[in-house]
Write a structure and sequence with these properties.
single chain, 171 residues, alpha+beta, Aminopeptidase, seven-stranded mixed sheet, 7 strands
């Protein structure tokens, strides 16, 4: 595979994001308007960012982050990650997650949280490899098929201002 580039999404990427989302069963299936709102979001109390991974202009993955507040109370959520089936296990998901976490940290978050299907062993391994730890479970949270949600968290508070990325690419 050619070199993968992760960048902030642009309006021109939205059609490809929606097509990819529809092809990935685990994706949230929000719809074009939701993604357009993320790309257009400003500096209100809740900030969101959509990152895409592309190879030679073709979107092969995306990730969405959301930040609520900043400073000692600043929390963030890794809302969604989707990678084209043909591009999995090549570091694309890791790069996308790393970009979201870096962005969350840059805008003042001290913690990043996420929910993942309990049956998604690959995704759980990815998140654990980035330093996320399990902190809870929501029974029967997902539908089609029914599955529990594992709650995971990554503490950013001890990264320190200007800290160099660790081997995880996060902090």
């Amino acid at each position: 595979m050619s070199s993968v580039r992760v960048r902030v999404a642009e309006v021109a990427d939205l059609d490809a994001v929606v097509v990819l989302e529809r092809s990935v069963a685990e994706a949230p299936h929000w719809g074009a308007a939701e993604y357009a709102a993320i790309v257009a979001s400003g500096d209100g109390g809740v900030r969101r960012c959509l990152f895409v991974a592309d190879v030679e202009g073709r979107v092969i993955g995306f990730a969405v982050g959301k930040v609520i507040g900043a400073g000692t109370e600043g929390s963030a959520e890794l809302e969604s990650v989707a990678v084209d089936v043909a591009a999995r296990r090549m570091g694309v998901g890791r790069a996308l997650c790393g970009s979201v976490v870096k962005w969350c940290r840059e805008v003042g978050s001290v913690v990043v949280e996420l929910e993942v299907r309990a049956a998604s062993a690959g995704a759980i391994a990815l998140y654990e490899g980035l330093g996320f730890v399990g902190v809870g479970r929501r029974r029967g949270y997902y539908r089609d098929p029914v599955d529990d949600a594992l709650l995971m968290r990554l503490e950013l508070g001890n990264c320190g201002e200007g800290a160099l990325p660790s081997s995880t690419g996060v902090c």
